[in-house]
Design brief:
Blueprint: E1 4-7, E2 15-16, H1 17-24, H2 30-38, E3 43-44, E4 47-48, E5 54-55, E6 60-63, H3 70-80, H4 84-97, E7 98-101, E8 105-110, H5 126-131, E9 142-143, E10 152-158, H6 161-172, E11 177-185, E12 192-196, E13 199-204, E14 207-212, E15 224-233, E16 237-244, H7 251-258, E17 287-295, E18 301-305, H8 310-319, E19 329-331
Parallel strand pairs: 10-17
Antiparallel strand pairs: 1-6, 2-5, 3-4, 3-6, 7-8, 8-10, 9-10, 11-16, 11-17, 12-15, 13-14, 15-16, 17-18, 18-19
Length: 332
């Protein structure tokens, strides 16, 4: 590979040089990067640079001939596991889930039962669908956040590392407004409020769960959820709108259970009660990531609303809950 000169793009602005290099050349180790900088082979605008130097939009970085290391071969083998048929199928599946897409990001409506990331015994997951479409390390789409496997609804995906960093910063600052809908057993009292109950992980029945904890308990995590009852069927069930102010594992499920109103279909945090009007759907989790609202990296506020999954739509109809009409996408 000959000497090359690469211009820093807008979404790479203010990245550390070593991280910028590894995104483009995943096979480069930190030691190699530092040596190339120390010997002056990697330069920014013709000047020597350190691995910790920051690159800016429009700057030109000199890249010397680079060896192809084992990681590059691993990358080739990894991408080769997806056949053309796999890629076509995954592309079609993602397209069916996609509610919004532009040059920077996409928002998908994940079905209940599809895992977000891989794990023991999990072969099909969103991260894998995205990975199979990658043509290079620069084009790999990146999940910005996660939701539980059995939870349906919105996931935000960045198309570049720069956009991923900007969106991650919004999540960290809690500038992205997330709204969930749930159907629960019972009706909370009062009908709206804020649950400010710390959570702590424990093992129950061989599974990791989050349970309520005292504020000063060692290992307790601050967890805050805003809720409002949007509808109810007598005293047996209610439709809740939930807005998490923090992002703890299973936070909404644990908080609903802590109120004494567990989410329908939540075997881990609730109870299995036979309800004839719901038929087969009562054993499926009734938690849906309904809406995302955030400042788009290129300006303006983007709002995306996900239609209910079939099992929750059936339940809403059976219980007489009327869903207000909202545009799927709005931007201003």
């Amino acid at each position: 590979m000959p000497v090359s000169f690469i211009e820093v793009s807008a979404d790479e602005h203010d990245s550390r040089l070593d991280r910028w290099l590894r995104r483009r050349y995943p096979f480069l180790g930190q030691g190699v990067i530092q040596k190339l900088c120390r010997t002056g082979q990697i330069r920014i605008e013709g000047k020597r640079a350190e691995a910790s130097s920051r690159v800016e939009q429009g700057q030109t970085v000199r890249i010397p001939p680079l060896p192809q290391g084992p990681a590059e071969e691993d990358k080739k083998r990894s991408t080769s596991q997806y056949s053309p048929d796999d890629i076509a199928h995954n592309r079609a599946e993602l397209q069916e889930m996609t509610l919004y897409e532009d040059d920077d990001l996409l928002v998908i409506n994940k079905p209940s039962g599809l895992a977000v990331q891989g794990g023991s015994g999990i072969k099909r997951h969103v991260d894998g669908l995205l990975e199979s479409l990658a043509l290079s390390s620069l084009e790999r789409f990146r999940l910005v956040h996660r939701i539980d496997r059995e939870t349906s609804g919105l996931l935000l995906v960045a198309k570049t590392a720069g956009v991923a960093a900007k969106l991650a910063a919004l999540f960290k600052d809690r500038s992205i407004k997330k709204t969930y809908w749930a159907v629960v057993y019972g009706v909370p009292t009062p009908r709206e409020g804020i649950i400010d109950t710390p959570l702590i992980p424990t093992i129950k029945g061989g599974e990791k769960v989050m349970v309520s904890a005292a504020r000063k308990q060692e290992g307790a995590l601050r967890a805050i959820t805003e809720y409002e009852v949007k509808g109810y069927a007598g005293r047996k069930m209610a439709w809740l709108e939930l807005s998490p102010h923090t992002g703890r594992t299973h936070q909404l499920r644990a908080h609903c259970a802590a109120m004494g109103t567990p989410i329908i279909g939540d075997a881990r945090y609730g109870v299995q009660t036979e309800i004839s009007v719901m038929e087969k759907n009562q054993h499926r989790l009734h938690l849906h990531a309904r809406k995302l609202e955030f400042l788009h990296p290129r300006g303006g506020v983007l709002q995306v609303v996900a239609p209910l999954p079939d099992h929750m739509d059936d339940t809403f109809r059976a219980l007489g809950f009327m869903v207000p009409k909202q545009p799927v996408v709005s931007r201003n």
